[in-house]
Amino acid sequence: MNILIVLAHPEPQSMNAAMFTTAIETLRAAGHEVKTSNLYAMRFNPVSDQGNFTKLQNTTFYKQQLEELHATATGSFAADIESEQQKVEWCDLMIWQFPLWWFSVPGILKGWVDRVFAMGRFYGEGRLYEQGVFKNKKALLSLTTGGREEAYLKGGLQGDIHNMLKPIHRGMLRFTGFHVLRPQIIYGPARQSPAMRDRELDQWRNRLVEVFNEAPVEIGTY
Amino acid sequence: MNILIVLAHPEPQSMNAAMFTTAIETLRAAGHEVKTSNLYAMRFNPVSDQGNFTKLQNTTFYKQQLEELHATATGSFAADIESEQQKVEWCDLMIWQFPLWWFSVPGILKGWVDRVFAMGRFYGEGRLYEQGVFKNKKALLSLTTGGREEAYLKGGLQGDIHNMLKPIHRGMLRFTGFHVLRPQIIYGPARQSPAMRDRELDQWRNRLVEVFNEAPVEIGTY
């Protein structure tokens, strides 16, 4: 199978980077093809604007979705977007590896979605949710939190993490058709001992070996 | 009163820009002080990393929250962050004006939060939610959608927009203590006639004149 892994963390020695490297190695060892987007290492530009395109249909009034439709029809996405779009289109499974910042993905990953998930190419004309462009693909969020697990339960200090993730699961992934696998969550790795972190990496390896046998989880509507 | 208005839209002729300009003019005419952060016009850098700081406590392993605590203690935030932090600290009311992209804020605004809302300075050591640093301030999301209103109701195509906004309302604003005013939402301005858009701007003006009399809305837990 083909797997795209997107990493959004600035520190190569971080737990997120270790999860990223572990996934690459494990999936390749299992015989899969893996492509990656290490957004910080690539210095990916997350600001969505006129620079998304090699030419504009309307140079005096920037209407982003109309330009996306035009770029889809004319093949005029900027090179950095086109290459990311091709990776998403290529994969059977997409994994996002990131730290949960402010109940969401880091800005660099949000901007990757803003720029890469273009109207016409990735959605539109009724192609969304169950009829989404990527309805034959799966996606999996793998993330770390700052706090302990009890803070992310219903009634906990922050609240149920699955509700926090819903705009991502539903608004970005299900919206474009992806079937969502249960998130891989590491709670407070900064507070864990090296042995505990090794155990997290082992659990991740064990899960990934069987990941193509997993059934998607229900995300539900709002 | 002091108001900070943050704008995250790439097109100066957009409805978002018109809402931004209308708010500035209306609030100043009512005798308030207004400061702005026009993120696209400022070319604000939304990538949170070592560049957030003028000096690092640990130059070999980047741990963002520890660096934020260090920068809070030593006054070593990068100039572009320090100046945004001062605006937030100065204001009584903060307004974010943005298009809803992927059920969330644009990447440039998410990255503004990632970088500016620093541990130590904006939260930490029990100072969050009801005891948040900004518990004497208010915040208001003013946003536009792509689709029509019926798509954003419970059971609609996208679902209840207030649930989509909850990670922002709770995870960014209530988390740091802000009391949240009801969001100002314009549904599908691209589909509206000029007269309808003018009416939206009028409603915004009328609301802003009385905005300091509004009671916050309940956001609730997860």
From TrEMBL, chains A, B:
Keywords: Oxidoreductase. It comes from the Bacteria. Residues 1-208 form the Flavodoxin-like fold domain. Transmembrane segments: none annotated. GO terms for cellular component: cytosol. One of its GO terms (molecular function) is NAD(P)H dehydrogenase (quinone) activity. The keyword Oxidoreductase applies. Belongs to the NAD(P)H dehydrogenase (quinone) family. This is Flavodoxin family protein. The lineage of its organism: Bacteria, Pseudomonadati, Bacteroidota, Cytophagia, Cytophagales.
